[in-house]
Design goal:
With 85 residues, the protein is an all-beta fold. The chain has one domain. Helices cover 0% and strands 80% of the residues. The protein is built from no helices and five strands. A five-stranded antiparallel sheet has the order 1-2-3-4-5, with no helix packed on it. The two termini are 24 Å apart.
Length: 85
């Protein structure tokens, strides 16, 4: 499950920059030779920063940063994505 909230946008020349906040959670079924099968819950909070060209509305790039909480440990994730509409 995942929630995404638009925080705002700024237009500079022909580029539009935006920021979104994200909150989500889920579970994974993992198989371990020692511990056996188990369900591992997880949750994340993060921010998505992106930019696009409003004149064409066909190309958008985004950068994603997440802090991830698991029962045994905490972690983070960084990603770069491209979208064509």
């Amino acid at each position: 499950m995942w929630l995404r909230k638009w925080l705002g946008a700024v237009h500079v020349a022909e580029m539009a920059f935006y920021a979104d906040a994200e909150l989500g959670g889920g579970a994974a079924l993992v198989r371990d030779t020692v511990a056996g099968d188990r369900c591992v819950p997880g949750g994340f909070v993060g921010v998505r920063l992106g930019y696009g060209m409003p004149m064409t509305s066909t190309f958008e790039a985004e950068f994603v940063f997440h802090a991830i909480a698991l029962p045994e440990d905490n972690s983070f994730m960084f990603g770069v994505g491209l979208a064509w509409e």
